[in-house]
Amino acid sequence: MAEIKSSDERRKEIIGAARQLFIDKGYDATSTTDIMKAVGIAKGTLYYHFSSKEEILDALIETITDDMVLRARKVASEMSVPVVTRMVGVIKSLRVASNGDADIVETIHLPQNALLHQKSHTETIHKICPMMLELVNEGIANGIFHTEYPKAAVHMALTYSVVGFDDPSVLDMDIIQGFVYNLERLLGTEPGCLNQFFELFCQ
Question: Using an 8 Å Cβ cutoff, are 112 and 23 in contact?
Answer without folding.
Answer: no
